[in-house]
Design goal:
The longest helix is centred in the first third of the chain and has 21 residues. The protein is built from 16 helices and 20 strands. By secondary structure, the chain is an alpha/beta fold. The strands form 5 sheets. A 7-stranded mixed beta sheet has the order 14-15-16-13-12-17-18, with helices on both faces. A 6-stranded mixed beta sheet has the order 9-8-7-10-11-19, with helices on both faces. It is 40% helix and 19% strand. The protein has 2 domains: 276 residues, Aldehyde Dehydrogenase, Chain A, domain 1 (3-Layer(aba) Sandwich), CATH 3.40.605.10; 188 residues, Aldehyde Dehydrogenase, Chain A, domain 2, CATH 3.40.309.10. α3 runs antiparallel to α5 and α4 runs antiparallel to α7. The structure holds NADP nicotinamide-adenine-dinucleotide phosphate.
Length: 485
């Protein structure tokens, strides 16, 4: 196991349950690897079902006290977590690079984004308003309040190990919910570090519990079956999301689901090519393409296609690939060998179906799970690269003639997370944005994520929203009191 320095060495390796750090019930450990080398870097406690249930017990014990804590106090504690996270930003970024493989630049951006959820929800914690109105028949008043929904189980993926956790913890704690966080097995260290920061901020024991587990199926199922759990907030693949929705049905647990994407990126003839290329690089290459919001399919109008393809290919070719720890690198390795092999297979299939490789397209020799920036042209409509989530630095380009055709292609998927549109004609941009069946649209913009905005998907990309005021309401229940006075 390679030696880790400073902050990373000090990150707890055990489960955080009820304010105590402890090993898993059966002593098992998860080996965490550096994707740039494939080497083991840490061994983290691997939670059992009973550990999961103990964490639910700790959260349930802390729940009434936390719900009764003044919103102002909750806000101040969240603000303290924001401050601490910001102070430790560089350390956290290094930790994310070590276990996820993304570049230092991406990791720094992730930490800033992740911390922002604590600041935003510190501000929102004191703005949970209800309503009061006179009943239509005048007999009474309709009073609606927004109490916390109760104990929440949070399940997060490896691709944004900090931000996907804080996007849930921030609003849950602001609303008055105690939580159990089950991070991805590939990246548990960042979640444990965030757990430790929250503890340092003196948020009461049991309000946040962190239980990494490679036995995610059985641990999460046990927690969902426990009637003390009232909320599941999941971010991950649509496939696992479907299974969890089924499991949550038994105890009728409220579910917020942030699932997979297959984002179309539309470029119209009148678009500013410079802006479209910058946006395409952001939407495709942020996080090395390992983002649910990653542009998965590029639909480019025939008139602008040669120039856009040439300039975009030049930009992709100029990307420096290497270990994320090198500050000058723009593309790190993929998270593991399976992820890299899946991307390589999608490219090979597409080429066999007749696509042209404009750059990249070959797995490099050597250590680590690297795959180069790749652009594919003349991609046939039947290619799986257009229907599956690529989750890597690969950009398939398809040409189109009319606006109606572009919208039809874009909507031809079961996913509906985000889409991107580039055009100089604002009326067209808004018309197309309205016609696109996605929860979010980037209009002349390649980045949509913002803690102040409601992030989430339509169709099979999810249920509910994270971020904005809506993100907080997901952790509340509407309570109606019919009152006569
Ligand atoms: P994943 O395989 O679905 O895993 C997500 C989380 O669920 C991990 O913590 C995982 O634990 C856990 N899990 C796996 N199987 C489970 C089961 N049967 N029961 C309960 N929990 C289970 O997804 P991933 O590969 O980590 O992440 C990539 C996916 O996340 C992509 O599809 C991406 O689009 C999506 N994503 C969506 C958003 C969004 O906001 N919409 C944001 C980021 C990512 P283990 O790690 O232990 O397997």
């Amino acid at each position: 196991m390679s030696d880790l320095n400073g902050f990373i060495k000090d990150v707890p390796r055990d489960l955080l349950i009820g304010g105590h750090w402890r090993p898993s019930g059966d002593g098992a450990r998860i080996t965490v690897c550096d994707p740039a080398t494939g080497e083991a870097i840490a061994a983290v406690a691997d939670g059992t079902r009973d550990d999961g249930l103990a964490a639910v017990g700790a959260a349930a014990a802390a729940q009434p006290g936390w719900a009764a804590t003044a919103p102002r106090r909750r806000a101040e504690l969240l603000r303290t977590v924001f401050d601490r996270m910001t102070e430790r930003a560089e350390d956290l970024a290094g930790l994310i690079v070590a276990e996820n493989g993304k570049t230092l630049q991406d990791a720094r951006a992730e930490v800033a984004y992740a911390a922002e959820f604590f600041r935003w929800y510190a501000e929102e914690a004191v703005r949970v308003a209800g309503t009061v109105q006179t009943a239509p028949n005048g007999a009474n008043r309709i009073l609606v309040t927004r109490p916390p929904i109760g104990v929440a189980v949070l399940v997060t993926p490896w691709n944004f190990p900090a931000a996907m956790a804080t996007r849930k913890i921030g609003p849950a704690l602001a609303a008055g919910c105690a939580v159990v966080l089950k991070p991805a097995s590939a990246t548990p260290l960042t979640a444990l570090a965030i757990g430790a920061l929250i503890e340092e901020a003196e948020i009461p024991a049991g309000v946040i519990n962190v239980v990494p587990s490679s036995r995610s199926g059985s641990v999460v199922a046990a927690m969902l079956a426990d009637p003390r759990v009232r909320k599941l907030s999941f971010t991950g693949s649509t496939e696992v999301g479907r299974r969890l929705l089924t499991a949550a049905a038994d105890t009728v647990v409220s579910c917020s689901m942030e699932l997979g994407g297959n984002a179309p990126f539309l470029v119209f003839d009148d678009a500013d090519v410079d802006a479209a290329v910058v946006g395409a690089m952001q939407a495709k290459m942020r996080n090395g393409g390992e983002a649910c919001t990653a542009a998965n399919r590029f639909y480019v109008q025939r008139g602008i296609a040669p120039e856009f393809s040439r300039r975009f290919t030049e930009a992709m070719r100029a990307v420096r690939m290497g270990p994320g720890t090198d500050d000058s690198v723009h593309l790190g390795p993929l998270v593991n060998a399976d992820a890299r092999d899946k991307v390589a297979e999608l490219v090979d299939q597409t080429v066999k179906l007749g696509a042209r490789v404009l750059t990249g397209g070959r797995t490099p020799a050597g250590d680590g799970f690297f795959y180069p920036p790749t652009v594919l042209a003349d991609v046939p409509a039947a290619a799986p690269v257009l229907t599956e989530e690529i989750f890597g630095p690969v950009a398939p380009i398809v040409e189109f003639d009319t606006e109606e055709e572009a919208v039809r292609h874009a909507n031809d998927t079961e996913y509906g997370l985000v889409s991107y549109v580039y055009t100089a004609d604002l009326a067209r941009g808004l018309r197309v944005a309205e016609a696109l069946d996605t929860g979010m649209v980037g209009l002349n913009r390649g980045l949509v994520s913002d803690p102040a905005a409601p992030f989430g998907g339509a169709k099979q990309s999810g249920l509910g929203r994270e971020g904005g005021h809506e993100g907080l309401l997901e952790f509340t229940e509407s309570k109606y009191i019919a009152v006569a006075w």
